[in-house]
Structures are given as structure tokens and as C-alpha cells.
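Box 3.1 A note on notation
Throughout this textbook, protein chains are presented in two layers. The first layer is the amino acid sequence; the second is a C-alpha cell string describing backbone geometry. Keep the layers aligned when reading.
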Amino acid sequence: MPCVVETQGLKIEIISIKLLFLILLLSFEVFPQIPINGFCKFNKFDVDSGFTSLFPLNYNGDSYTDLVLFNQSKKEIESLTGEQSGSFETPRNSRTPSEISRIQGMTDHNNNITGYVYCSRKRMKSGMISFSKNGKPSFQQEIKLKSYPDNIAIADLSGNGNSAILLSGRSFDGLSLLNIQNKKLKESRIINNTVYSFAQFMDINHDGFPDIAAFNLTSQCLDLFYNKGNQDYSKTQSFPVTEQIYSLKTSDIDLDSYEDIVVSKRNSIEIFYGSFNSSFDNRKVIATEYNPERIITGDFNKDGKIDIAYLDTKTGVLSVLFGKDNRDFYPEVIYFRKEGCSDLIPFYSKFINGIAVLNKNGSLYTLTNFTGVSEEINISLGVSQQGLNYFDHNHDRIPDLCFIDNTEHRLNLILRNSSGVPDIYYSIPLNGTFAKVYSDNYRDNATFYCYSAGEKLIEEVNLDYKHSTYDKKSFYVRNGIKNIRAEHNGNSEVKLYVVQLEKKKLSATVFNNISINYLNSNFFISDNVVDASSGEGSNSDLYFWQNKKDSLTLYSSSYTNNFQYPEFRYSVRQTGMRGILSFTGDFISSKNEAYYGIIKSNEPYTTVLLSRNMNLSANHIDPAAGLPDNNELYYTGAMNFKGTDKIFFNSPDEGLIKRIDIINRGRNFSISTVTDAQFAVDYFIKNLNLRNYHLVYIDSRENCITIKPIQ
């Protein structure tokens, strides 16, 4: 029932108390804990544009993997010499006599590289290629072909240590074998007058000799050829495939000692599992969010299971399906989307385990294992990141990360283990588009409120870590949201405060959790409000400025009494006011939250510092250059283990994070640079280990999260 409470100078009105029916409720949905085990470290390297394929090798014989970039339309390659920590020297370019379509390594019985084979689709040829210590290529033993090869597979067909080369392609006649005889390549035909777009060696019947699995582009069938000895092959089985495929790989996916066949198609990956009878009757189709045009396999998260990574070249999406037990896979993890990506490979170097992706626009990306935050590091997860925040799911003082991916419409959580390494990844679907996340971590549950400042929709995601379930609720408030805060009573019930500021009218909605619904109360607090601010602590007050005529008046109001009886704190006559910057934090070492405000005007600025335990300090100071007006650029928090809270702001034009120090008990302030942060948007400063505080921010150019130690 509505009621009105009069206070001196202000009117607080409890507008209504009613039962809010939620517009959406999805309860007890299971969410998987995806064990990324640190596999999320992102690096970018500049290369020359125009290259579309890459190949790993070690041409200088050291401990680090080198890379060769090429393009089947260019007579040129680029060599990248590997260095420690997965980096590379300055690229070197070399001219080639032919346009290279594919490169493949030849190995001996001990899996040591003995040479490299290339094919040139444009020139209808194949041959041997070698590299000098600095990556310069040379070509030998070339053979002219009668059609256009795309793909190479290599195996020792007879067990005598001599490798044979299998050629196939979407415009290649049949299948051909190349052998080295008298230091020359000789071609023999396996089958003619049909087209196999892909072909791979594999031991189908487990006799120790390589057979062949090939995709027949004409019949759209997967054909199997048995090795009868002396490089004589006969087709023995054929499986229909419903559509054309993007790629074909062979690998022991389920680690049962039988090779499996993996094909990628439009929005799916199909696995034909090998068995003792070579029937390939057991098959699994995995639906994918994007088109898996390039696929690779490997144990990327180092959990002893085989994973599948794919690249969609049209969208530039890199996605990974991590393996589980019983031939199952976790839901795919989207790692990034970057237009222009054209190829991917497994990338292994000294102490490095991961994936390399080439972008034809002049970039090379690596995704490897995260080992710690002692130095600057980038995390890539999701297509786009927004609303970056932290929480502590295990109450172990190891901050975890959360953010919204508005492209995929998901709330993503990164849980860190006791070593601080990103260990578990959660990705929860959202219905709306949001810019902020407020986290409320309570006992075994965590609740995340997704919203956007100035908007009216809130989507609540409540996670039960113990049972791996979640429920979602979406609801509206009456006016544009200013901030959100949650409190708990002894019965685990939550009270959610939503402060709203729209058209200079300040109001609040208080939601009391009752079963699956909320009892909500709406409070009108004041009109003519130009700014409002509050901290996140349970004892924080709401501070707001009321502007009437030429007078600015500061009030504080308590959350605990539902904002009734706001307390007058300060008033100043002000003309030409251009904005107010408001901050709350432990600025004065009193272990109590204080309020600090800066009134920006054409006159000298006015600063106000006050708390419950100190007298108000108000001062007029000369205007300070470089303070941005956008409140979203500011952050309040500590930056060392013993000091008071500081006020930070992002200076995008300078690419810097700066700090405001309150000095002389509020009589003045100073501005200094903390660190550089190019293209930073959402950010916070927090100690992610026991030695350093860290700047954590979203790099808007690379769409990644950067973690940077600060002094």
C-alpha cells in the first residue's frame, strides 16, 4: 500500500509494493565445467600480408619451432625463426620458382625429419624442398604432373625406411604415389578418372602397413583402399557422406590404439571410429556453431585426452572442442574471431603447447598454455568482451574473472586454480545484450546480474557450483539503472538494490527474494539530481547531488533504511557547473568508506571529502587538466597491499591509465601515470597473486583480456 514519508527538504515516497512476475525463468539447467587448464594465452606477431598458409619446421636445428608462410598464388615464402617463450625473429622473405600449395615433412623410423615435399597446384608439379639455417628454401627433384594437386600425405609403405608421397586434390585426377628412384621422383597411379579432394594414409586393417582413406568428390563417399603390398592398392569399402567435406584427418581420437577418420562438413564434424574389425560402424556427429573449414587435433589442455580445434575462414573464428571420456566432448569454446584468418596448425616448441593461426592481412596468432601472471599476458576467450569484472568463487582470495560476450550472447566465467592459472571455463547463454556484470558470490552459489547503465532490463544468472546447475531470471525496473548492490540475511535470502537515475529523478527498487519470485518495492528519492554514487561495501551509503537554481547540495542516504531520511552533507553555490565526478572508497586510512567529489566548472573546481568518522573537507582548487567527463573511465580500488584506495582513470587518447591521489586530507589532489594501456576499455586493478597488483583490461583492438603487473 503506498505511503509517503516527509523529510526536511526532500520527499521519500514508497511508490508501490507488489509481486513482480519474472518475464523469463529457466531453472536447473546443467552447465559444464570446461577444463581449459590454462589454455588461453594469446600472442600476436606481425608478418607480411598476403600469405595464406603456414607450416612448422625446425630449419636451424635449435630447440624452438620455426614457421614458413606461403601462398599458392605467390612465388614467395616468409620464414619465421623461433625463439624462446614462443616468439619469433624478424621475418625473412625469399623468392621461389613456383607457387607453393602445400608442404609436408618426411620422417625416418625414429620420427626424425629427413626432408620436405611440396606441391604446386598452379604449376602442376611436386618436388623436394630444403631450407638453410636462416630459412632460405631450395628446390630439387621436381616432377611435372598432368593435373592439379592440392594435398600431400607421406608414409613408409613397405617398412624399409623409404617414404612414399600421396597426392590428391579437388582438380587432381585420381590418386598418385611418388617415390624417389635414382634421386628422381617417379609417379605411379592408384586410381584414375575420378576426383579425391582429400586423402590420408592410415593403418585400416592393423597389419602395420599404411592403407588409404580418401574422399571421393564425385560420389561423395569416403573410400578405403587396402595396401596389398608392393604399393598395390585396392578399394575395399565405401561410406556415403551426405555432403561435400572441408577437410579429412586421421587420428586416434579415443586413444584405443585404432586410428579414426575425422571429416569436417558444414556446421559439423563427423568421426568414424576405428575398431578391431575395421568396420567404422561407430560414428559420432558433433554440431558446431561455425563451419569447421580447417581442423587439427591434439591434447591442447594437457589432460591426456585428444581435442579438436577448427577454423572458420569466412568468419575468422577459432574454436576448440575439448575431449572427455567415453568418446564425448565438452561444448565448444570460441577463442576468437578475427577477419582474414586462413590457416591453423598445431604449434609445439620448447615448453610450448598450442595452436598457431595465420591471418592473411598480416598477423600470426598463437594460443598456448598460461603459466602465471608474473609478467604481462593476454587471455583470448570469446568473440568480444564487455563488462569485465572479478569475483571469488571459492572464497580463497584468488580473484576469478567474468565478462559478457555480446556477439555470442553469453556470460563467460574464468575460474583460476590455487596457482592462479585459468583452470575452469563456464559459458552461460544470455537472452539480452548487456554492458556490465555485478557479481554476488555467496557460499556455494554465485549470482551475476547483467545490465547496462541507463537501461531497464536486468538478467540474473544464479550458479550452483556444487551441483553444476544454474537458473536465470530476467526482470525490468522502471527507470534507467545507475548501479546495483546485493545484501544477504542470515537465511540466505538476498535483497537486491537497484538505484536508478533518469531525467534527473533519483529512485530505487528493492527486490526481496521469495521462492522463485521477487517482492519489489519502488522508492522515489529526489528530483533535480545531477549525480549519484555509492560503493559496494555492506556499509556504503548512497551519495547524490541535487541542483536547484545556483545551488548544489550533497546528501547521503542509507541502504539499510530503504533510503529514507537522507542526510544533508554539504551545499555550495555554483554557476557554470560542467559535471561532477563522484567516488567512494577507503581514501583516508580509516577503514571506513569515504566520499570524494570533484565539481568541474568554469570557476575553480570544488572538491569534497567526507566520511562518517571525519569532518567534511571542502576546498576550491585550480582546474585540473586531463580529467575526463565520462564516469565509465574511472575505477576506485587499492594498488598495493598496505595503502589506501586510489582513484584511477583511463586516458584513451594517451593510451594510459592514470591515478588521482587525494592529498592534504582532501585539500588537493595530484595526477600521475600508472602504466600504458593501449586500446583499453573496461578495466580493474586487483592483486592476482601475492606479490603484485595487476591492471586487468579489455584490449578493444585485439578483443582479448590483458593482465599487466603494476608497481
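The longest strand covers residues 184-202. The radius of gyration is 31 Å.
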